[in-house]
Amino acid sequence: MATNRSFHFLSKPTNIAPLVFFRIAFGLLMFISILRFMLKGWVYSMYVMPKFHFPYYGFEWVQALPESFMYAFFGAMLIACLGITFGFLYRVSAISFFILFTYVELIDKTNYLNHYYFVSLISFLLIFTPANKSFSLDNLLFKRNETTIIPQFYILLIKVQLFLVYLFAGIAKINTDWLFNAQPLKMWLPAFSYYPIIGSYMEHDWVAYLFSWVGCLYDILIGFFLFNKRTVHIAYVFVVIFHAATALFFNIGMFPYIMIVATVIYFKEDFHGKIVSLLKKIVHYSNNNLREGSINYSNGLVYFFVLYFSVQCLLPFRYTLYSGNLFWTEQGYRFSWRVMLMEKAGTAFFYVKDSKSQKESEVDNKQYLTYMQEKMMSTQPDMMVDYAKFLKKEYEQMGYTNVTVRAQVFVTLNGLGTREFIDSSVDLSRESNSVFKNKNWIKQYE
Amino acid sequence: MKPLKLLFLLICTVFFFYSCDKDKDNNPEPDNPFDKEGLLINYADAIILPNYNSFKLSLDSLVLSFDVFKTSASLSDFQLVKQKLHVAYLKYQTISLTEFGPAESEIVRMNFNVFPTDTAQIIANIASGTYDLSAASNLDAKGFPALDYLFYGKNSSENSMSNLLSSSTTRKQYVTDILNEMTTKTNAVITTWNTTYRSQFISSLNTDIGSSIGYLVNQLNFELDYLKNAKVGIPLGKKTLNIPLPEKCEAYFGTQSLPYAVATLNIIEDIYLGRSKAGIDGKGFDDYLNHLGASYGSGTLDAAIKNQFSIAKTKLAAISNPISVEVISNPNTVDAAYVELVKLLVLLKTDMPSNLGVIITYQDGDGD
User: Fold this and answer.
1) Record: contact B10-A206, CB cut-off 8 A
2) DSSP assignment string, B71-123
């Protein structure tokens, strides 16, 4: 049977070292990321300060909690990161980190980043891996045997995940604006003309084209070269150069560093073996109870992950089920590894109509939304609906009767000039935000 | 080494494509990067500093005239004080949008021009004789709007206002305290600009948060939003079901709301064009946008913005002074100006930063 053959391939015995290395590196990087997040005051500005949050469809029940809870959650995440790193109560730590991180992410669409989605997925995968079966506090504390060999299935999970991120980021770049107009890079790069040496080139169109094409090819191909043992080292050089370049040009926080560290998992096992042995020496780690042979995994788990990755492969294409230009309407845009693809900005004026007087008031968005919330809402239709529903409640509490909410929105996409974005006569507070419905009140993108 | 070869081949393909792809842009390739330092030097030396100095002179002159009135108590000196207040308030409009660096540390906007002013608070402060002008609770009981009230009053004759002021030591002291605070802050801002901030300002050549260009773009938009909302929209009743609120106008008591609104729009245009105080058109955002080849519809973005400035200025000038009267007797004229200010705001707040690559947020962007 074919499945048996592939299952056999998945159970190929492999050194556990790459997984141990990944566990330690990921835990530490997440610790730094969460700490950085807290120190920058983002817990407050994203989860405490806003009067109102933009929920994800189907996750409206995910609410922000009072300030002290939010800080406690972030504190718990820090502890969970260390638990992952040191393999201490590993499974509990991994589950806690995944749940807390994902919970925080689901509170507000404003803060959506592909990089956060990626962290949620990786931490989810880590729950299922035996990453604490070697070089872990769990082994020492609970007198467990040291595992050296695992089926490669567990390492493949992470490799496949990374591969998909790159591949879909690359596929997303195959569009006219990116390849044939070098947009949005043509608009972004000139801002860096103050850089020494390379700065003088930043205003040249050919540089924007070069960056666009190299970026697209890199994303599509890098996963294949990383997977291939003969090309992994040269591919890794490209990984470092590419992510260092993006870190230099774009305000994207920890993401480049996370990718530079995560892709080390593709190296040959003896590389990780050496690192882990060295670390064991440094901390005088010794566990003389060795486990014989490999560990098992259930077929159910394999089926589950086949399904899991299949869903991830399908999600980026769900936009084809909606009408209109994807970048313009953003229907089916998230959870698809679409990064840096467009320069989109908008201004939205909301009008609340009181049915008794038949008169309208213009809303001062600053009164209800943070700068970031307003910025994101002004280009994303689903957020406009959320906001309209919120305004309806807000104004009816103020004494307005049977309110209707409409908006005049002007959006520019990749430098084409602002134009009317939605039908300004539609009562947005009565529109559905279901992902299963097409938003036909978004104007056509010419 | 296969992947390298492959990548090299692919890059060659890119160049092939690129050389085949006739560039659709109608702007020639720039020979060298835009001179951002020149832009900032023009802003600092031809617009910001001259406006500060000019404002300072008008403020000093107001202080002097008030000192004269304090001893003379004559009606003609009082009239002179009011004239000087008008000149200083008008010149203040040209520095209001420079709210970054030194002005941001002094919080000039909030301390000089929160309107409508809290008349009850002013009266209470004067009556008690003990007040702390620097307290947050007094932000709307000082600055120009408070002087506007203390010199003009509500439906009071010039004579009675003059007498009220000259006969009350505490009232005179209150005016003096307001003027002192404004003078101190203005001097502090100008000193910092002249000693350290100017060089810092002109050497910040990036476009992210905390850069000079970022500040300018932000404040330009803040000021335009302020003009659209506080000076025109709110009095017109835009936020209150079209019920006009004339008392929310700037300079409500001295009835100079229109010239101040016009001055605000003019300084926004000055900054956009890089037009000096003397009226000479230097390097501005218009040149920067043209250099980058920013387009709008079938023309340039610059042309669209200039055109919108011209329409907005015309519509604003069509309103009779003061706006507080017009929102009741001529709301359509005010509304026509409002509509054009909204269009201008969209261009300056959305199109311009998008083309300049100005980042206005601290949060991480979506990475890759």
Assistant:
1) no
2) HH--HHHHHHHHHHHHHHHHHHTTTTT--STHHHHHTHHHHH--SS--HHHHH
